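Chapter review: from sequence to fold.
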Amino acid sequence: MMLGVLAAALLSGGPTFHKEILPLLQKHCHGCHRAGEAAPMAFSGYQQVRPWAKAIKASVLSRQMPPWFADPAYGKFHNARGLAAVEIETIAAWVEAGAPEGDPSEAPEPVAFVEGWNIGKPDLEIAMPGAYEVPASGTVEYTYVIVPTGLKEDAWVQAAEVRPGSRAVVHHVIAFIREPGSKWMRAYEPGVPFVPRGDRGGGETASELLVGYAPGLPPAVLQPGTAKLLKAGSDIVLQLHYTTNGGKVSDRTRLGLIFASEPPRERVMTLAAMNTKFVIPAGAPNHRVDSEFTLRADARLIGLMPHMHLRGKDFLYRAVYPTGEEETLLSVPRYDFNWQLWYYLAEPKTMPKGTRLECTAHFDNSANNPANPDAAKQVKWGDQSWEEMMIGWFDVAFDRAMDPARLFKQGGGE
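The C-alpha cell string follows.
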C-alpha cells in the first residue's frame, strides 16, 4: 500500500506534508514529538516540522529515528520501531522537493491523546505529596519517597506510566511495590523524601518493580490476559535519581495506573540478571561482564531490557534450556544510554524450570568513547551515571495463582 502511495505522490508532483508526511509523523513520531513529551521539539504542524526537514531526512536515512537497537537476526518483537523502506523514500522525496506543504484539507484527522499521559486516562494517579527541590549544583544521592496507594482491594495493573515533574533534572525513576507486611524502608515516614542510610530493611529484592522512567523508555503496557498485582494496602516506593543542571528546580513526579477489567490469566513480574561485582580497567575498550539468572519454576518470557550507563557498548541475552540447548534471545550491538528500551517478544517463549538466562555486556572505558566521563579511572558498580551498572531486566508471566517466590528459590518449582 505504501509503495502505491509513493507512486501516486510522485505522479502528482511529489509528496506533500499534509497528504503523505503528516500521517507518517502521526504513526511513528508523535508519541514523543508533541508538546509536553520527551522530544525536544514538537512535530504537530507544518510550521513546526519545516525547519527540521533536512534533519528528519538524515535521521531516517541513517535509521537513528525511530530509535530501535535490536539486531534483526535475533528475535521478533511486537513493539519494534522502524520505518519501512518506502516510508523512508517518501520522506526523502519530500525533503528533496523542498518540503512542500500541500493542501491542508488533505491532512488526516488529528490523533487524540490524553493530555499528560501516553497510556490514556489513568484509573489511579499517585503523586509525590510535595515537590522536591533539586539544588543548582552538586551530586544528589538517590532519593526515595513512600506513597500509600490507599487501595482497599487487590488490583491488577495493565498499564503504568511515570511522569516526571521536571524532565530537565529527573534522570530516572523506579516505582517499586511495597506489599503490606514488608519491612523494607519501614524506618522512613511516608510522603517525606529521604536518602536511605544503613540497613534499609531488606533491600529492593524485598519489593517488586512496577514501572520505571528513564531516557527514551516508553510506558509499560501489558498484553491482554497479563497484568502486575498491586495488593490492597500496598505502598509505592519511588526511587528518584536527580541530576543538577545549574539552576534550582522543583520536581513533583506522578504515577498513572490503568487496571485490568478482570483478573488476568497470568501475573507478570520484572526480574533481573545483574552483576554488581565487576571492575572495568582504566582505558579498556571492550571489557566483558556477564550475569545470569536461573528460573526455578516454569514461566513465559515476554520482555527484555538491557541497562548500562555511559560506557555501555553492547548487550546480549541468551537462554540455556535444561536440555542444554542455547538460544540468543536479543542482541543489542550498539547500546545507547539515551534510549532505555524494552524489547517485547512477538510471541512469548516458554522457559521451563531450570532455564538459565545469561547476559553478556561489553563496556568501552577508553578515550575513544565520547560519552566516557573519565577514561583514566577504573569503574565499578554505582548509582551515578559516571559509575556503571550491568542489569539484564526481563519480564516473565506465570499462572496468577502461583507464589512468585517459586521463580527464584532453589527447589521452588516442585
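Two observations follow directly from the output. The chain has five helices and 21 strands. Residues 64 and 390 are 24 Å apart (CA to CA).
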